[in-house]
Design goal:
Elements (H helix, E strand, L loop, with lengths): L6 H19 L3 H16 L3 H14 L4 H13 L3 H14 L4 H13 L3 H22 L8
Length: 145
Amino acid sequence: MAQGISALGKLRLGAAAFILRQAVTSTGPTTANTLCQHGLDMLAAGMASTAAHVFRAAIHADPTSSEAQHGLIRALRDAGRIEQAIGAAVAVTDLTPNDPLAFTELSISLQQAGHLPEAEAARAHARLLEEEMQFQTSPDEETLP
């Protein structure tokens, strides 16, 4: 069996290094969006750890990018770094306390770590936020003709 990195592996690592070099030299929403797309590509290619680095670079470029935050959580989970995924998910819930997706991500990460009561509490909170959002966007039945 051959040892070392395959040619495809070297190509992937080279692409990841190029993407990260670009991230270091520029910032802003466009850069963050581009990096998020590269991060998703890395996830699709099975390169979760590299994707996590790319999503961190996207967050550095635009700390308000929820796509980058959620991508980082997914990449960390896929890389098997569950405790880091939980930390990232908690950070997202702090940044966006009214976002049901943030609490759903936290719930999934907690569940994978075996913290089932905490996972269910986070999921219940996500459901509550979803219901509140539906209530706010529903027309008021009393004012209908």
